[in-house]
Amino acid sequence: MRATLDISSIRVKLSRGNTTMRIQFVSVTAAAFAVLGSSATLATTVATPTYYSFMTINSAGGDGDFTQLLGINNAGTIAGYFGDGSVVPNNGFTVAPPYGAGNFTAENFPDAAQTQVVGINNTGATVGFYIDTTAAMNNHGFIYTGGRFYTVDNPLTAPGSVGSPSVNQLLGINDNNLAVGFYTGSTAQEGELVNLSSPGSPIFLPVTVPAAFNPVSTTATDINNSNVISGFFTNGTADSVEGFIMNGDTFIPLNFGNDTNTMALGLNNKDQVVGSYVNDAGDTVGFVYNWLTDSLETINDPNADGSTAFGVEGTIVNGINDKGQLVGFYANTDGPNVNGFLATPVVPEPSTWAMMLLGFAGLGLVGYRSSRPRALHFAAKAGA
Length: 384
Prior knowledge:
A hairpin with a 2-residue loop joins strand 25 and strand 26 (312-313). The radius of gyration is 20 Å and the shape is globular. It has one helix at 350-363, and strands spanning 22-26, 28-36, 39-45, 50-57, 67-72, 78-82, 91-95, 104-106, 114-120, 126-131, 139-145, 148-152, 168-173, 178-184, 189-195, 203-207, 215-223, 229-235, 240-247, 250-254, 262-267, 272-278, 284-290, 295-299, 308-309, 312-313, 315-320, 326-332, 337-346, 376-377. By secondary structure, the chain is mostly beta strands. The termini are close together.
């Protein structure tokens, strides 16, 4: 079903029961931008630094080598999956505080070959996707709510075949049961907004990147309660992957690091978006970006060692709640493994703050290099 909708209104490790904790100082540099037409003036300041307590959370009794944490709600319940999909199938789960072995709940679509649970809202509804058991291994979006699974497939999805499966994936959901994700159309990968107020009768709308960016493919990754949407797209002109924030008719592209690969993967209701980018050294790092204050934090799990495991490199931040807690995953050579992590903001001791202030006094003004976010206004397209 398609209709018109106004979107502007509407691995500390826990596997095997072991727990460790690391507290890391995250170096922060903030950039403030004054957008004037097509040009921007850069004023750089040093933002208040953030301390995070990092926990590595890996699946209990599952694949000890591969866990990804992908979404977190305000109660601290985390959505994710374990299994690399080849040696061990993807197995979805949710895990609640205090994140011990007994706090994991399996969540797998019935009779599916594999399941990933990606997004979770504050009512406990989850979204994600599953792979069916046909020879084509088609991907289907789903919502799990009220103790029941519902398949959510866009009617414009191109049919799948062996070696070229059809793909529907839901990646984020807000408290109003509006979800976002993507599907494979007849010519390209397309972003979508889905109204799941009646999960058995979803309403689909396009999430469209302005044509000026020559988008080759689009992925919508999350949506908050103000209907702000995050995502990323492939720019066919620049041959790069760029993140974005979309708020009604305002579109903000995001480019950090070396401008080749920035992905906005999740957001909250506090004007913060998270994701990953490739820095000037070619390393993949996580980030937290506040689109109102134009402040950027770079996030690196202290256990990430720059190695590659199962195609994952560095630190990826995939979700954030309104308390500023981050979830994601990182790679290290211990296995090699892909490990899930939870990062919680903590308040440093007064003596620590004093040392930091002394450091800033000697640091002076620090410049931050990035492509400047530009706010563009365009006519939103709803329904076709």
